[in-house]
Amino acid sequence: MIDDLRYPALIVTPHVEDYKLQHSGGGDVHVFGDIETSRENLLKSCEVIKARLDEAEQGAQSIGIARLKLREDATAKSHRPREAFTQDTCPVIGDLGEAGELLVLVSPPKLDHLTQKVRSLGQRGSAHLTSIESFTLVGMERRFPHRVRSEVISDIERYGQAQLKIRVPSFHLFGSIYQEELEQKLLTLAGVEEKPYLHQGDFAVYAVKVQDMSQAMAIASLQFIEQLDLMPTYRTTGYAVINMANLRLAINCPLDDLPIVAIVDSGIDPNSPLEPLVYSRERFVPSSYCNPSHGTSVAALAAAQEGIVGDTFIPRCRLLDVTVIPNSDPSVGPTEKLYENVLVRRLEEAVQKYSDVKHWNLSLATETRTRPTTFSDLGMELDRLHKLYDVTFYCSPGNYNSLRTEWPPNPNISSQDWVASPGDALCGITVGSCTSDDSPDDAMAPGGAPSPFSPRGPVAYSVVKPDVVEVGGNLARDRFTQIGVNTISRNGEYCTDIGTSFSTPRVCGTSAELAACIVRSSFNQCNPLLLSKTLLLHHASVPSTLTLGATLRLSDFYGFGKPASLEDMIGDPFWRSTSLICGQLFPDGQDIVIEDFPYSDGLCNGGQYWGQVWVTMVSEPVVDPSFKMEYARSSIDVHFGVVRQTTSQGEKFVSQTKCVHTGNDSQVSLDRNEYRWSPVKQYRSKPLIGCSGDRWRLRVHMTLRDKESDTVRVNPNKAREYSVDVVVAVTIADPTRSVQVSNQMFHKWRARGNYLAQIEVANRLEARFASPSGRF
User: Fewer Cβ close by (within 10 Å): the C or N end of the chain?
Assistant: First the structure.
């Protein structure tokens, strides 16, 4: 008889002895050019920068920001001139928008100290000077590019003013001599707000309002300004077409049993059928500017079972209404823009007040853009709130309004269809849109393809975004007829919507249910939000029928794929087993090394192994918002394979998985450096493993960037400040679907003595999973 049960995924805590010190030696120093020539060039650069600072007026103007450009082949941390640029000389305080471009704080006294240091460096430090390509003061064009100036002029001509933001080093970096003077000089300029609305490591971001271009130029002329830019505005990311119908709310369990999802949007209409689900409200928009149409539609998709709105509406979560987006439709009433500084303050106030709500849906974004080279300010702010309050943000990547007119897309067409802010939030879950499988033949995109309006990734530093996709609608080839997702309007009428606004809440609601099941397992060794994110990405899949050209990757459009059903994420059929290894890594050289990783007896015979394996690693990364490109500061690598005993060399490890971009038949192995700093990585074996060995080994290793590594080396007690929580999901499966893998893996882990927990199915879900393929 075929076993039709589902076996819950296993949550595994490594033994203390599974943390093992790994010794790694430092290798020979690499020299990229003549050492003395490099030394002299740097000394001359210091003289030029000092002269330019002295040419400006005295006092605050003697402080500036310089650009340290590294050679293209010398950007690795082992090559950087870390011995020369220190806190005692001219410290590196951030980076710019290209690889190997670092920001350095300079002043005449600091440059004198740097000059002395460069002349007295030892052999290794002198060799590292050869990694430098140039060292120059950041000029006006980098601080206030011509493109931004044109946009500021346009806004002033159109609105009579322009909203800007400026990024400056935090004043504590300058010391007591300059700190008060610099702060006063900045804040006395017309239009600069008294307090920054963002704190980004060693930088602060201020909002500015200018009425003429001379005010903007006066700010940009300050040498200690890092960047002057337009203040971004955010808007909803979906459109609706109304169709009359009736909807009946069918509550089949106590509402207190349901998890809560925050809808950060335009509001949930109190007259809609969703009102009984509203847990609380936090309104930041005056009633005259409220238009809850979009927010109500988004909330319905978050709350509806399976994210499907039908005649009978069965809720899966309660709703926290956080109204932050003002009306943008002149036919409804007065309109207003939502500027980033306003959004940040509203959002932080709401998250601080409702930090017990763990799932926050943001169906809003800026305009899509060209490929980003740095992480956005709002994306980094969401990561800060995520870490501070232990919440997860589900972000829309925006909508590409010009539309992708063909699939597969033409790789030679450069466009503005890249993921928009805050879809690049490193710790968030960004949800793109795909079409339904039953899309009509005359649709712009075929069934299962990315929606024509769904932006593509990756984002800065090749981080995969979106993370996943869900059905969010399509368009007919006339570019106007919408093939939408069923939801409701503000008064409860059916409507069909398209946009990433409506794919995002479907995933948010599913994740809230998944996390609730994990919480029920009473496993306290790992954050349930990190576990639920791991399962969401681990079991996601990309349609195997879709292929792209060599220069495009499916993950650019799908991320890690479309999420599996909730029951498939929570449990496995008998022929596969998922183990979730939960650990914490510190920068003291200790890796997680499970030397005898369990493997199903039914998939081995006499040291010969077969089967299929896929691995997903999700980490809670170390970040530093001082660096807008090298923002992620920790890298986690996973190695999974067999250990063979050899007569000549003792033991030999043979990996059976490779780090890949997602896809099935079209998997692309990744360049190690390109993908290295992503907090999510996937590894896959061949479709059918055939290997020999004595046992299986899992190794999980962490690397930090140079700033953090140097801090820990100087002060080992700082290691605890750079801990990284990590979950590694390992699924072992029988491709023939005949071997009882799940039960064997459970007993293997118990025999090993690890503490095990199993994800528990909430009582209200048991009826939903009562089909033959879904019983637990």
Answer: N
